[in-house]
Amino acid sequence: MNLLYISISGNTKSFAKRLHELSISKQSQSAHHPIIQIKEISDNTLLDHEKEPFVVCVPTYLEGGNGVDNGDQEILTEAMRDYIAYDDNATFCKGIIGSGNKNFNLQYCLTAKQYAEQFSVPFLADFELRGTSTELEQIYTILEALHAN
């Protein structure tokens, strides 16, 4: 299973790396567990054709307002949206994972929810900041089930 992520503050990158490491650990215990390969997308990433299924992990950065009825302009993460929208990449996207800070209330994981709606894929899960070990295990289980289907 491939995980594409974008990280601004380092929280999402930390979570993605820990998820990758967890998948290696589980795979060494049993060959039935998938290894999660991670790929960072940034403003410097060249648009490319994805050829295998992937899941996206995206934080939320919005400009002003409350993020619901005003001020829900995505900032800093547009490179991921562009990457998914490139050519037929969206057809390989199996879902979106959101990260954020619950202090932002209704804005929490709003970018991920907007991606899920735009690309007609499920909003799979969320985690706060760098994610807890419980959130890591829960999201791994979700990705493992996706991989099995």
TrEMBL record:
A Pfam family annotated for this UniProt entry: Flavodoxin_NdrI
Name of the protein: Class Ib ribonucleoside-diphosphate reductase assembly flavoprotein NrdI
Organism: Enterococcus camelliae
